[in-house]
Write a structure and sequence with these properties.
- 2 copies of one chain form a homodimer.
- By secondary structure, chain A is an all-alpha fold.
- Chain A is 61% helix and 3% strand.
- The radius of gyration of chain A is 24 Å and the shape is elongated.
- Chains A and B meet through helix 3, helix 4, helix 5 and helix 6 of A and helix 3, helix 4, helix 5 and helix 6 of B.
- Chain A binds a DNA duplex (30 and 30 nucleotides) through helix 2.
Chain lengths: 140, 140
DNA sequence: CTTGACTCTAGACCTAGATCAAGGGTCTAG
DNA sequence: CTAGACCCTTGATCTAGGTCTAGAGTCAAG
């Protein structure tokens, strides 16, 4: 299996995946995609597996993985020995990072919400709690 | 009031606020800080108000405001007519953006958490739910 | 007066993840 | 055969928010 049945131009791949042509070439340069076959003219010639791999990259990106991390995931997914264990570890790390970020943002949100609530929306700038909080030493 | 009592070098200001010297000059170029007085030698000479303004900028940045937004907040804080109302509006917008970002991240977290949970952490890559989710069409 | 720390300017460089431009070759429908 | 769409490479540019370098001048302690 894995015989190259179809032959797609870079534009066709881009259209299927919903990504720019330049992005595909960029990923190739960055080692996220293997170097494709070439036609006699020099045109890149892709098979369906590239489409799948590009979708993999896009989904991982949606999950917040960086391209560096995705490159690693791709390598791990090909590692039959330690692949799964390491993949799970990376996913757990990503999960922890996301949770930390959520916590930070919630703290920021709570602080800002309190300020917005306590601001009447009119009056002198000196009495605006938002401006005061920004200008003064933090109290809490 | 607002008489220049103290005279601080850029290094002294940087140290007090906990920010790099280059950053202060950068903020000046970007219009977030006014052009300071100069000594005869050309050295910038700052008063305490600059320290306060820098702290304002840092706190606003901690709340997730961009430098563009902070520049606007600084202008608004000097506007005795519409300042407070506009400041509150900007804060509300920032708050809404933060809440949206939190919601997005929670969605991502839930998806990733489910994958991590369902992955045994060993076995063949083809059976790893994380890799499968990345490689296959999204089901849900 | 010297030495070392500090400051000045202009401009280059950095990260991440692309995106665009220039100048040229290729493919395909009519 | 030609027009228009597509593809090639190399290298520049973009955003945001700085950071760093080079080369030169200044300040303060001893």
């Amino acid at each position: 299996m894995n015989i190259q049945i179809s032959s797609l131009t870079i534009g066709a791949v881009a259209k299927r995946v919903g990504v720019a042509i330049d992005t595909i070439r960029y990923y190739e340069r960055e080692g996220l995609l293997p170097e494709p076959l070439r036609r006699a003219s020099g045109y890149r010639s892709y098979g369906e597996s590239t489409v799948a791999q590009l979708r993999f990259i896009r989904r991982a990106k949606d999950l917040g993985f960086t391209l560096d991390e995705i490159r690693e995931l791709l390598a791990l997914s090909a590692d039959r020995q330690r692949g799964v264990k390491a993949v799970k570890q990376r996913a757990q790390q990503r999960l922890a990072a996301i949770e930390q970020r959520i916590t930070e943002l919630q703290r920021v949100r709570d602080g800002l919400a309190q300020l917005v609530e306590s601001c009447p929306g009119h009056g002198k700038p000196e009495q605006c709690p938002i401006l005061r909080a920004l200008a003064d030493e933090a109290k809490s």
